[in-house]
Amino acid sequence: MNGKILMNFALTICFFCCCSSGRVIESPHYNVIHVEAEFEIRQYKQVSWISALVQGTASFEKSTQQGFHRLYQYIHGANINSSHFLITSPVTTTIMASTHGPERLVRYYLPSMYTENPPLPNSELNVQFEKWRSNCLAVRRFSGFAKDDNINKEVEALKSSLNKYLPKSSAISEYTVAQYNSSRHLSGRLNEVWLDVSAVTSEGCQRR
Ligand SMILES: *[C@@H]1O[C@H](CO)[C@@H](O)[C@H](O)[C@H]1NC(C)=O
Ligand SMILES: *[C@@H]1O[C@H](CO)[C@@H](O)[C@H](O)[C@H]1NC(C)=O
Description:
The protein is of the alpha+beta class. It has helices at residues 2-19, 60-75, 151-162, and strands at residues 30-35, 40-55, 91-95, 103-109, 127-142, 175-179, 191-196. It has a single domain (2-200), classed as Multidrug-efflux Transporter 1 Regulator Bmrr, Chain A.
């Protein structure tokens, strides 16, 4: 078990090392709708992801490694076309509001050339193609490494600063951690916590 986790970790490092030098890394496009000192509201449109559901592991770090390991294989040829994909960012982990044990959804952002018809994944990877139509996200940035022992604090801080602006958002329990940088970067790291506030904002992501 430890060996497997170590290997996943090594793969993660390798993934970022070999691919994050020089080239421009694609990220999903969004519009900033509202800005405050501690958070912003963004509208994302038509974002395509490949996602891996991880069940039974409460740890954010472990479930991210497990899910990312499956996504890593998909983008490195374990698909019907044996296609290799460009690296994108961020890698996101959604901590889902489930009543039957922990569920985490790890996502890789599909580069623009694959947004419509990504090659089918090898079935044993159990990864899914997912397309967002339009989403309104409340976003808080934080630096350092995203870890089990700091992500709760960050999402609680986002909720409390959001509370005045969108009081109804306090009922939202599902949240996402977005990691933008390779693990070899020890400083200058960017992470975000996202709360999907689509249900409590109007169509243009404005306050209702
Ligand atoms: C996969 O391969 C098929 C047949 O070679 C081709 O028609 C299709 O466009 C490819 N799909 C992708 C996403 O590259
Ligand atoms: C981390 O990622 C962000 C967003 O892509 C980028 O602006 C920043 O320069 C990166 N940091 C390092 C140390 O590469």
